[in-house]
Amino acid sequence: MEVKKKPEEEENELVLELKGQLENEHLTPVEKLRLLNDSLNNALNSAAVHVNSGELTRLKSQLYLSGVLIHCVRVLSLHPSSLWGDLSAAATLAHLTSSCCVGVEPGPHSETFHRLFLPSVVDALLSLAAQLVNRTENVSLLRKVMDSVGWLLAAHTHLTEKVLSSIHYEQIQVCDDVTVSLLCVQMWIQTCTANSDFLSGLSDDSILLLLNEAIGQLALSSDSTVGGASLRLILLMASQLGRCLRPLLLSFRGLDSLLHKDWRGRGFDRGIDQLIALIQSEKDVVSQTQGSSEHVRAACVIQAAWRSYKTRRRVKSLNRAISVLQRKYRARRREQQQQKEAQLWEEELKYQVCVRRQQARRRFHQKQRQLLQLLPADQVQSYLQECENRAAVVIQSFWRGFRERRHYSSTQRHMLRRERAVRMLQRGVRRFLHKRRAAKVPPLTPFWIGQKGLTDSRRAELKQQVDEHIATHQSFRVSPEECSCLHEEVQLLLLSVLQTGAQQRMEEQRVEALLAHVHTQLELLRDAPPLSVVTETDADTFLSPSGPVAARARDAHNAMLQASRLPWWRMLGDTDAGPVDPLGSTHLPELEEELGGLYIGGTVADKKQTQVDEVKL
């Protein structure tokens, strides 16, 4: 025998089953939309059939508490492209959702329901309405959605401010379609008609926004239906609010003239006369209350005093802020000036460095030209060619170095990385093999383990072995007398070596002096003028030995100065060659070839003349 379930239990099971189906992730938005429409329509129809009026309220509360209405809001918030353009089903779901939100008893979740959930529902409905605005074939769907919004506003007055400040509602108002404007005005008329206390529960700002919308339709639209609906809304607000609306009407200057000029003869002149009479009556009251000029003057004085007080107070509070701003501005300007001065100083320094470099280079070239003038004409070209060769060698070395480094960085980097990896692997393998071999070697026993002290017999045996070793390996030590004799012999040998070395050095210096003298004489003879033009002064230079010596010393000094002032890249080739000795042993064959036996005979046979020349030098 089946037990008949109660209606409450059946509704709970249906709601839970619907919630489980909606939480299925495989459902598409279109399937969810159709499922919600069918389930909510059936549930609301079945609950409306019951005689008990609390059945429908309980069902709506169960739908909210279970989260089904939240799924409805999510589906309505989707873009029409996600719903495959099924806007009629979306409008039906909007109507069902607004119906479910009216008459709900959220219980302990009342604050969340009114502050969070209902604004999200209104935003979703207005978003759907904004998407339907630009489609002329969906006027009936738009009317259905706007009726749903009006039904929500009639039940929950606090949502009016949310609707008037919504971005989607502003998009709807911007539309130039007459039908859309008419639907907006009719929505407010139906809301005020359905709930007579709707306007009394609104704030002054909300009432002013609503009144601004109605008067804006009168000012912008020229359609008689929109104008009649707007006029009817204003009169309805005036009848429900009474005197509270009249001061607000005066804030719209020129409203009476607009009604009289633009909307006369449209079929609702009676309503226009009523509204103009309300405005005129309020103007008479205001003019009576402001009839006294003294009161006006007193009000102006009070306002001036109050504004001056506020201004002085504001200036006093702004002094600190102004000082802070000035301080920051001055610090910033000072920093900019310092940066600019530093930049100018750096540029000036760079310019001075460049100028000094140019001047140094110019002086160097001038000195180089002066030094080149001292060289013989036949040596200038060879010297310049040698300098160019050195410069070319330096440039080539730099270029080859750059080319090799680039080649190394492009081709050898991978090889080095591979070698480094191989070394790392080998190091790890060797460490592993060393540890394994060390583990296989048995531990050594310490040398002190098992040792005993020396006995007397063992000590006597060791002493005998030491005596035998000393007797076998006798010492060959030298006596002190032999050491002193040996020392004297070494001193005599060292003294003789030093004396012969000093004599050899003196002989070498004498030979070098003679070579220098002869070389100088040869250069002077080679550069001497012909005998036909020789003067007495020129003859004295050849007869006096001081002249050739001074000329040779001057040439050597000029050569050293010229070599020391060469640039570094021209002296790179001379670093490895070492100093050249012009009077060394390598020039002896050349001198012998030039002078023949005269030089050799003079050095070997005539020692007296050589000594005289040495004294002269």
TrEMBL record:
<dbReference type="InterPro" id="IPR000048">
    <property type="entry name" value="IQ_motif_EF-hand-BS"/>
</dbReference>
<dbReference type="InterPro" id="IPR028765">
    <property type="entry name" value="IQCB1"/>
</dbReference>
<dbReference type="GO" id="GO:0060271">
    <property type="term" value="P:cilium assembly"/>
</dbReference>
<dbReference type="GO" id="GO:0005929">
    <property type="term" value="C:cilium"/>
</dbReference>
<protein>
    <recommendedName>
        <fullName>IQ motif containing B1</fullName>
    </recommendedName>
</protein>
<dbReference type="GO" id="GO:0005516">
    <property type="term" value="F:calmodulin binding"/>
</dbReference>
<dbReference type="Pfam" id="PF00612">
    <property type="entry name" value="IQ"/>
</dbReference>
